[in-house]
From TrEMBL:
Keywords: Signal. It comes from Pongo abelii (Sumatran orangutan). This is ITGAX isoform 3. InterPro entries: Integrin_alpha_N (IPR028994). One of its GO terms (biological process) is integrin-mediated signaling pathway. It comes from the Eukaryota. GO terms for cellular component: external side of plasma membrane; integrin complex. One of its GO terms (molecular function) is integrin binding. The keyword Nucleotide-binding does not apply. Residues 1-19 form the signal peptide.
Length: 151
């Protein structure tokens, strides 16, 4: 009797875990002719998402870009950011994260030449802080070592 009850509980737990909350019938597809578009995506507000294109060539020795894409329109527009001159081959938008309260966007960029990355915190896409992070290569990925300074 105990095995039957345990099996029933296990089956019930597995059956309820098969669900998901992706809308497959009314999906919104965003298309931008930009290298790496969609490598990173984060929902920033209820009506739009931020999409990274870390391979987009924006200027000589500068790569990466961000797009704001609206659910209702299905359209994307580039997000303009002030990029430091020393940030070459940075892969802007390689990784994205967002919070809702307060509403903030965190984006990372990699600087392989100097092996330093920048972490920028944006609220309404206005730069609030600039944090230099010490990074090291670890099995083909960047790992945060320590926080060096906050400006």
């Amino acid at each position: 009797m105990t095995r039957t009850r345990a099996a029933l509980l296990l089956f019930t737990a597995l059956a309820t875990s098969l669900g998901f909350n992706l809308d497959t019938e009314e999906l919104t597809a965003f298309h931008v002719d930009s290298a790496g578009f969609g490598d990173s995506v984060v929902q920033y507000a209820n009506s739009w998402v931020v999409v990274g294109a870390p391979e987009k060539i924006t200027a000589a020795n500068q790569t990466g870009g961000l797009y704001q894409c609206g659910y209702s329109t299905g359209a994307c527009k580039p997000i303009s950011l002030q990029v430091p001159l020393e940030a070459v081959n940075m892969s802007l938008g390689l990784s994205l994260a967002a919070t809702t309260s307060p509403s903030r966007l965190l984006l990372t960029q990699r600087l392989p030449a100097s092996r330093q990355g920048e972490c920028r915190d944006h609220q309404g896409f206005e730069e609030l802080t600039h944090i230099q992070l010490g990074v090291r290569w670890a099995r083909d990925s960047l790992a945060r070592v320590d926080q060096k300074e906050e400006i």
